[in-house]
Design a protein that fits this description.
The chain is an alpha/beta fold. Helix content is 38%, strand content 19%. The protein has 10 helices and 12 strands. Helix 5 packs across helix 6.
Length: 285
């Protein structure tokens, strides 16, 4: 998109909800939007159709850009980032990671006496909650066999929209078809009446997860090091420089011998790091 005014074209569909509808935008203004989103979220924005302008009632990209950049409350930039956030996920996605968590990582952490058998896990791009709830189910099953282990899962995402969904813990039945029946019965409640066709994560599991909006481009908290970090299928939307910064920050936030999981389509091969690989896309500090 150099030198012309073009109509916004389709983008990689994995970026989820669209942000702009079909109006024309100049190359220079599109670059301003792209730079703004990269600055705020580290995401490289490709040309795409969308809805945010229509939702706000604006008639041009220039008008909307001015509104976003002049909004001192910061609410509209959050809305914009909500629109370009990737929201696809599922329960026990990339099952091998959860198998490794159960068979190797949790026993290893217990053997090392982590903080009086209390561990902290982080779902660093939790989307609508399927990942942290899957983690919690694995933890609950492990704790049943290993009494005394305590855990907390913090679940963060840049999108306030998906976080609200995650906190409710309500999913349509088609979202849980891959979960074994015994686990469904144990950890989910069936909806009745108006909620028929839906299930909800039981309260004892929801209580173990702290949901909070967090931008991975921001400075990481310096206290309470994490024992396990899941940051999967996120780095594919970042350039190499941003990936490097993110991996460096995860290394710092992990406790000694802590574990990092990334997506199966991702790799640390071209990045500088001190992690030890323990399995496909699973690493130990």
């Amino acid at each position: 998109m150099i030198g012309k005014i073009k109509e916004m074209a389709n983008i990689d569909p994995s970026l989820g909800t669209s942000i702009f509808f079909s109006v024309k935008i100049s190359d220079s203004l599109f670059k301003k939007f792209s730079d703004l989103i990269y600055q705020k979220a580290g995401i490289y924005l490709k040309p795409e159709k969308g809805k945010r302008l229509r939702a706000c009632g604006f008639t041009s990209f220039a008008e909307y850009y001015n509104y976003v950049t002049q909004d001192k409350s910061g609410i509209e930039i959050v809305n914009l980032l909500d629109c370009i956030s990737t929201n696809f996920t599922s329960f026990f996605r990339e099952q091998a990671h959860f198998d490794l968590l159960d068979s190797h990582v949790l026993p290893s952490l217990m053997d090392r006496g982590k903080r009086n058998n209390e561990i902290l896990l982080w779902s660093a791009a939790c989307s609508s909650g399927e990942e942290p709830y899957s983690m919690a189910i694995i933890l609950e099953e492990f704790v049943n066999k290993n009494p005394g282990l305590r855990y907390t899962i913090k679940a963060t995402d840049i999108s306030t929209k998906v976080l609200a969904h995650a906190q409710r813990g309500v999913y349509s039945k088609d979202k849980v078809t891959n979960i074994p029946k015994q686990l469904l019965k144990k950890y989910f409640q069936k909806g009745v009446g108006k909620s028929e066709g839906f299930v909800r994560i039981k309260g004892n599991v929801r209580s173990k997860i702290i949901f909070k909006r967090f931008n991975l481009m921001d400075e990481f908290p310096g206290h309470n090091p994490c024992d396990v970090v899941f940051c999967r299928n996120v780095m594919i939307y970042f350039n190499r420089a941003t990936q490097q910064k993110l991996i460096d920050k995860f290394y710092q936030v992990l406790s000694p011998d802590g574990y990092l999981f990334i997506g199966h389509s991702e790799s640390l091969a071209n990045l500088k790091h001190n992690f030890k690989q323990v399995a496909a896309t699973a690493y130990c500090k």
